[in-house]
Amino acid sequence: MADPQVHISTGETGANDSVGDIEMGGDEGVESVEVEETAAASNGGDVAELSQEESNPPRTTFIDYLKSPIVELLIGTGDHQTLLTAHQALLTRSPFFVNAITKFSESATSRRIPLPMESLDAVGCFLQYLYTGEYFPRKLDDARDTAGLEQDPDMPSIDDTGDQLLKHARVYTLADKLGLPDLKTLSHSKIHRISSTASGEIAYARYVYAHTPSTDTTIRKPVASFWGQRSHVLRHEAEKEFKDMCLEFPEFGFDVLSFVLDAKERRGTERESRAEEPKSARKRARNAV
Q1: Is 176 helix (H, G, I), strand (E, B) or coil?
Q2: What whole-number distance in Å separates Cα of residue 70 and Cα of residue 141?
Q3: Which label site among 19, 40, 80, 198 has the fewest CB atoms less than 10 Å from its CB?
């Protein structure tokens, strides 16, 4: 699967570059703020005006983001490592990176965060989203929100391998790890705009059940629903893969079966309701005497 067209500056850092140790800095700054506020109050300062200033902090501009330190993200392991860079102020939108960045000292000459288990393509999509609010391929404009995605020239129109589905599924799980619910929602919405085959859907289902918790019904329930509604057709197109999937992930088979049985139960209840409805009584016309 081709990587998205993301142009992100990269840098190489020597092995001897120092990485900052954990320091609990900033105490002096906090104390100075407390002293200033106390002095203002003791000198008859307007407390209401001060509170209003606190509730309306200065607006952060995009230039402010670009002025922040550069952080290196080392993706992969061994010979497959790739070094990406991003501005620290943008990365701090993620609680995961906030925690990692607090371990750098102010005097650190190198700020590097290893991500050995993450997909390079998914991290690239994440960085593109940070800087632009979207990632490739973007959703096409549609008032009904049912349109597809812009065409990737390196991808077929029908996803036969599951690569296109997996691209957005990996962004979804990465967004969950980084604590970015908006990116999770965006990537999940793109999954349902892809046309795929039974083989592609099996590959996608395997990834979902291998990398998400059973409590994540947002992404798991549509997978079970998809197979529950089309299993009579799709199962014959990929019968062996479907069987292997059920054996490898029993929860998948149970979820599909539960969907089928629930749908059957609802249909039975609807039929019973219609049968119990009172029928209108029509009087026979009387013969004239």
Answers
A1: helix
A2: 34
A3: 80
